[in-house]
Amino acid sequence: MSETKIIGVTDAISLAKPTEADKELTRSLVETLESYDLFESASELNHRLSVLGRLDMLAKQWIKSIAELKHLPASVIDKVGGRLCTFGSYRLGVHSKGADIDTLLVAPRHVDRKDFFASFYQHLSEQPETNGLRSVEEAFVPLIKLHFDGIELDILFARLNTPSVPDDMDLSDEKILRNLHISCVRSLNGTRVTDQILKLVPVRETFRLTLRAIKLWAKNRGIYSNALGFLGGVSWAMLVARICQLYPNAAPGTMSETKIIGVTDAISLAKPTEADKELTRSLVETLESYDLFESASELNHRLSVLGRLDMLAKQWIKSIAELKHLPASVIDKVGGRLCTFGSYRLGVHSKGADIDTLLVAPRHVDRKDFFASFYQHLSEQPETNGLRSVEEAFVPLIKLHFDGIELDILFARLNTPSVPDDMDLSDEKILRNLHISCVRSLNGTRVTDQILKLVPVRETFRLTLRAIKLWAKNRGIYSNALGFLGGVSWAMLVARICQLYPNAAPGTLVDKFFYIFKSWKWPQPVLLNKRSTNENNIQLPVWDPLNNVQDRLHLMPIITPAFPEQNSTFNVSLSSKMVIQEAFEEGL
Questions:
Q1: What is the Cα–Cα distance from 209 to 73, expressed in whole angstroms?
Q2: Which whole-number Å values give the CA distances from 30 to 108, 252, 504, 518, in the listed order?
Q3: Cα(152)–Cα(90) distance, rounded to whole angstroms?
Q4: pLDDT tens across 7-25, in order?
Q5: What is the pLDDT of residues 521-578, one digit of tens each?
Q6: Residue 41: pLDDT above 60?
Q7: Which are the catalytic amino acids?
Q8: Torsion, CA 264, CA 267, CA 269, CA 275, rounded to 10
Q9: Quick one: DSSP state of residue 431?
Q10: Which DSSP string do the residues of 521-556 spell out, in sequence order?
Q11: Helix, strand, coil percentages in the chain from 3-state DSSP, rounded to 5
């Protein structure tokens, strides 16, 4: 009696209905999403509706007042209207607790952008519910940001070439875009695209649940960011929408399967039980009792320090280009980057910990410049304290405190005329013909980023690693220099456990960590991925026990996942190995 409607640019791949197994998978998916506390309660949802209703009324009143100020006829004033529309995650129905709401104020032609950023801004500032009000006029899509009665909102503005904007105006009609200013077209785009996505999915609730799952996965993998060169919210929404078109009758659980990462299949794909979740809550409470986590203000201060140092580095690299009389066209593009690695980049640093950083510079900057003029440049900054260079280290570096934050800065010079912010440092080709000291400096960033790519769920990995780091430090076995395991080795061990139990909760993974490694058949190496085939034929030493006798003598090899692969535990001796193994057995 009824047929599935085919939506999209091609026919569906399958019209199969969900099986009982599919439905069970979806129930499990819902439970997993609920365990992350993503869904708002009915009262929280109603509060959002109330806020939007009040702001819509304020906007209509303001638009009418502007009409009166501009002496429009009374017959026109009564009909000017105006609308506050939503778009983005809220409009799609996939926003999480505490998320902001993207909105668009659509006004008739008598209201211009100056009115919006002047008198509407003033109108909002006079409301007792308003906090944190600020305008961002210079943005690609200008907006006003605020908190209204506890809800964070972004308000864009679009002025239509119409005398009025009734509530039932169809913003999807292309004719409304005729002769509009480009900034208004951009502002309208969010609402028009969001509404079109919702029209183009077969079953909205299926789409929403699937998108929630994919968003959570993408955020945990650190690839949910348009600004950082990954995919933003609307891109993920369109990808999920396309899958819904290709499988219009499928259940949400069918559209997302666990991806297996690593050199072997997972040992178990079991989802967390209620007992596992309770164990994880207890683990979090224990970690919090050690005061390991920084506050939001402390985290923001670190970001501010890194941002200022990155800017200083870029300015310095440009000044070196000018001193060496490079062409102006080259100087403008030299770039440079300050990257992080180690515990901070992994997201497991503790309060007061230092930040490992790497300054990546183009070929016109050499190591002498770094230890001479950049050192001098840093010494002239009022925020700098405790500055010293360690040129004789295996990996040379500059150490300092900058505005209260301790940092180590390594240096790498690439064989490129420029180093843009989006340069892929994981590309093996950048290592060709580099000095070995630069290869070593790059290794920290390349290995850290590769570890993050090779764990199934980043937040699970981070919480588990925090627990194992705390245990190892308390046992006195967290030290590469003393023949035990350093930070990167512990990170790789935890990453391997996450690969073997990709759906497990942190509380379970801590137990599995000791279960697996107390009986590990050393010197069988721990690997996170298949070793590089060195397709680019770059002549660098790698860990290779088949051809290198010294590598066969390593007692507990844990192999870094980025070329050139190295054993991070070459310092482990027979005695320190025994101490580590005893600790693993007692940990279980």
A1: 49
A2: 43, 9, 16, 35
A3: 12
A4: 778 888 888 888 888 888 8
A5: 999 999 999 888 777 788 899 999 999 999 999 999 999 999 999 999 999 999 999 9
A6: yes
A7: 343, 354, 356, 408, 469, 478
A8: -150
A9: G
A10: -TTSPB-SSPPP--TT--------TTT-HHHHT-SS
A11: 45, 15, 40
